[in-house]
Amino acid sequence: MKIRFWGVRGSFAMCGKDFLRHGGNTTSVELVTDGGNRLLIDLGTGATVYAKHLMASEFGRGAGRLPVLLSHTHLDHIQGLPFFTPFFIKGNQIRILGADPAGGSLRGTLQNQLAPHYSPLNGLENLAAGVSIESFLPGAELLVDDFEITTAALPHGTMWTTGFRIKADNKIVAFLSDVEYPAPHRPTREAFALAAGADLLIHDAMHDDDAYALARGWGHSPVSAGVHLARAAGAAKLALFHHSPDATDEAIDRLVVTAQSRASVPVFAAAEGEYLTI
Amino acid sequence: MEITFWGVRGSYPVPGPATVRYGGQTSCVEVRTRDGQVVIFDAGTGLRALGQKLAREASAERRRYTILLSHVHWDHIQGLPFFEPAYIPDTVIDVYALLTAADELHQVIGGITRHEFFPIPLEAVPADFQFHEVEPGVPIAIGGVKILPIALNHPFGSVGYRLDGDGTSVAYISDTAPFTEVLHKQHFLSGLELLTEEDRASLVKMRAELVDAIRGCDTVIYDTHYVPDEYARFPHYGHSTPDQALEILAGNDVRRLILYHHAPAHDDDQMDTIAAEYRARGAEVGIDVITACEGMVLTVGVARVVAA
Fold first, then answer.
1. Segments of chain B with pLDDT less than 70
2. How much is the pLDDT for A39?
3. Chain A 188-227, residues with CB within 8 Å of chain B CB atoms
4. Of the residues A112, A212, A268, B222, which has the fewest C-beta atoms closer than 10 A?
5. Cis before B175 (ω within 30)
6. What pTM was estimated for this model as a whole?
7. Ranges of chain A with pLDDT below 70
8. What residues in A contact B233, CB-CB < 8 Å?
9. Backbone phi, then psi, for B281, in 5-degree steps?
10. pLDDT by residue (tens digit) across B262-296?
11. Which of B14, B25, B116 would you mutate first to test chain A, the one with the most A CBs within 10 A?
C-alpha cells in the first residue's frame, strides 16, 4: 500500500514561502493498494490538487471510481468539495462515506455546503458524476473495494470525529485527526484500538506541548498525544498531522525534533509530496 | 486612503510554490481612511491575516470594523470564522450584504458557523455582529465615507461598491460576468441559455448603471478571473476578463484598473504575462493597469505603490 498526503494543514489553508516544504493545503490523504485501488480521506483544499492529478487519468474521460471517507464536516475537511473537478465529469462514480453530524445528516450538510447562497453548483444534484452519499455509524466496519476499514468516534472538543483503521495489502494505516483526549496521555479506548499495531499512525499534532496549555478544550492534540499513543499501542511509525496554520516549516521541523526525542518509533511530519510506500 | 490586498485569488485558496509572489488567499481588500476608519471588501481567506493585524492594533477607540460583502459564495466569506477581532469583547463588526433570498442575512452568513462546519457559532462569539442589507443604487454613509452598492451579474446575485472618501474614490467590482451573453439568475447554469428580450434589457440596464456608478473613479478593482480563451469555455461561470473590464472602464474617466480575483490555475509566471500584456493594453486607452498581488498596498489619490 502507498500513501500520499495532498493536504496536511489544519483549520486554514496557508499560502506563501513559509509553508512550502510541508504544504499549506488542508486535509486530504490518498491511499493506493498494490492492485491500484484508491481511497481518499477528507476533501480539504488538498483535494483540489489531487483533482488535477486524477483528471489526467481515467477520471478525465468519465471512467473513474473513487471512494472518499470523511472524518467530519468541519470546513477544513470539506472545502475542496465544490472544486473537486472529477465531480463535473459524467460517468465518474464517487462514493462519499461519513458519519452523520449530531442532529443532522451527512447528505443534508453537504447539500447545505452547496446551497445556492454559498455555491453556484446549487446543490449535489447538479454534480455531473454519479455521487453517492453513504452514512455509517461510528464503530461500523466497512469493506470498500479491498480496503478493510474500522471506524470509531473520537472526541473533538464539543463534538466528535471519526477515526479510521484501514487495512489493505497486509498493512495497517490508522488515521486519527482532529482529536483531543481527556488528557494527552489518556487516549480513549477507541483511539487505542484503531492504532494498535498500525504500520503507520497519522495523528493530530496541531499544538506543541507548551501552546496546548492555552488551547485545551479546542479539540486538538499536542504533539505528545500522538507520541504516547504510538508507544502505547505499538504503532511502527508516527506521522504528525493537521499542522497548525501558524506553524511555519521551521516550526514544524522543531516539533519533529522534540517529538522524536520522546518517541519510541520513527516520527515524521506529514508533508505534501510524493507517494510513500508503507 | 490606503488600500491593502489581503487576498486576490478567486474560488479557493491555492497554497504552494506557484503562487508565492501573487498570493493564494481568496478575496479580501482593506481600505483605511486617513482618520483610521477600516472598511473591508469581502471576507475570503485573506481576512485571517488582516484580522491578526487588526487584533494587534485594537484599542478602546478602534474596535469597529465594516465588512462590505459582494456576495456570500464561500471564497468571499470563508475567512469570517477566523477573523480574530470577532473574538475580542466590545468589538462591533458591521456586515453589509445583498439579500438575495427570503432568508435573513444572519442566518445565511451565520450558517457557515453551524456546528457541522465550525466549532464556534456566530451567536457565541464575543463581538457584536450587526448585519445590514444593501440595495443596489441606494447609497450608505459609514463614518466619513460614502458607499454606493452596484448590481453585478453573478450567480445568485452580487454587488459591487463605490467608496468615496478622503477626496478620492475606489470601486470594488467583483464578482461579475460581462453584460452580454448571460444574465445570471437564481438557478444552476450548465452552459449558455438563450436570452429573452427582457434579459437583454436587464443586461443593458445593469451595464449602464455600472458605467455611471464608476464614472470618474480613481481606482477600480475588477473581477478579471479569466483570460479570453478561458472565458470562452466558461462564459456561464460569472467572471470577466481584463479585456471586458477595460471595455467597461475606457472613456469613463477612470485612472487606474486593478486586475483581481485571479483564477486559481494561474501560476505566478502566467500572472506576470497577464500583468505585462494588460499594462500595455491599458496604456493604449489611458488607464494605469496594475495586477493585484497579496500584500500590495496602494495609496489612492497619490501615484505610488509600496510593497508590503
1. 101-102, 302-308
2. 98
3. 218-219
4. A268
5. yes
6. 0.96
7. none
8. none
9. -65, -40
10. 999 999 999 999 999 999 999 999 999 999 999 99
11. B116
Q: Specify the pLDDT at position A204.
A: 98
Beta carbons of B36 and B143 less than 8 angstroms apart: no
ipTM: 0.96
Strand order in the sheet with B64-68: B128-134, B92-98, B64-68, B38-41, B28-32, B2-7, B297-299, B304-306
Q: Which domains, from first to last, does chain B contain?
A: 2-306 (3.60.15.10)
Residue-wise pLDDT tens digits, B40-56? 999 999 999 999 999 99
Least CB-CB distance to B24: which of A15, A159, A245?
Answer: A15
Cell numbers describing residue B216: 470618474
Task: Report domain A2-277's class.
Answer: alpha beta
- State which residue of chain B sits closest to A101, comparing Cα positions: B116
Contact list, A115 vs chain B (CB under 8 Å): 111
A141: cell is 466496519
Identify which of A25, A118, A121 has the shortest CB distance to residue B15: A25
Among candidates B15, B156, B188 on the partner chain, residue whose Cβ is nearest the Cβ of A24: B15
Q: Do the Cβ atoms of A122 and B187 come within 8 Å? A: yes
Q: Which amino acid is located at A230 in the chain?
A: A
| Cβ separation A116–B186 shorter than 8 A | yes
Sequence ranges of the domains in chain A: 2-277
Q: For cell 514544524, what's the residue?
A: A252
Compare all CA atoms of chain A with the CA of B18 and give the residue at the minimum distance: A16
Our CA-based measurement puts residue B302 at a distance from the nearest CA of chain A, in whole angstroms, of: 29
pLDDT digits (tens, 9 = 90+) for A200-209: 999 999 999 9
**B9's grid cell:** 485569488
**Torsion of Cα atoms, B69 then B74 then B79 then B80, to 10°:** 60
